[in-house]
Amino acid sequence: MSLWPSRPEGSPRNTWAVRVAQIEHTGTSARVHLTGDADLVADVTLDAVADLSLAPGVPVHATVKATEVTFYH
Where residue 12 falls among pLDDT bands split at 50, 70, 90? Predict the structure, then answer.
């Protein structure tokens, strides 16, 4: 999954407007809980958290390739 500050143009077809709900630091990465058009969880680098200024309430767009999806029921 990729996070973007605004809706990306180009090939990403699975895109949702979301807001950061919570960030869990997990050593060298962070688990970002997102809510909005979909409730999602993204594992990203700490550099991505800093570059995107991620914090609770920050709006972002999440994109995912169909081959990266895992469904839990």
Answer: low
pTM of the model: 0.84
The secondary structure of 7-63 as a DSSP string is: PPPSS--EEEEEEEEEEEE-SSEEEEEEEESS-EEEEEEHHHHHHTT--TT-EEEEE
| Cβ–Cβ < 8 Å for 12, 63 | yes
User: What strands, in cross-sheet order, belong to the sheet with 2-4?
Assistant: 2-4, 59-64, 14-25, 29-36, 40-45
